[in-house]
Design goal:
Blueprint (H helix, E strand, L loop, with lengths): L14 H10 L3 H6 L5 H23 L2 E3 H8 L3 H10 L5 E4 L6 E6 H10 L10
Antiparallel strand pairs: 1-3, 2-3
Helix pairs in contact: 4-5
Amino acid sequence: MTDTAPPDPLGEMDPRLMAYLMENHPDAAGLAARPDRSLLMQVLARCVRLADDVAAAKAASQEWLSVEDFAAAVGKAKFTVREWCRRGRITARKKGSGRGTAQEWAVPRAELLRYQKDGLLPLTQRRS
């Protein structure tokens, strides 16, 4: 008899799942190292992958981006993006935030694509 383990149907363990298990379950190291991982670990791995798919689909369908999302997409600070909005360097508008009368900047997804292609709008094209 050989000691080869059956192939793992899920492939390698997702590093985020591994980190979560190590952080929250002290005995997970032994379980994760076993070639015959438990059904629970397989289910957890599938849940992590499904959550990623759902988050990606949600992000793709968003018509408006928050300042935080836009900043993360272009690698800039939130403050910088808010200033661009205020100065009209990117097309944005104020929208209700759901917290009383406070309004926050919202950037259309199309503006992200335009910015990535053409950069900032010139100061002469400020919106009123």
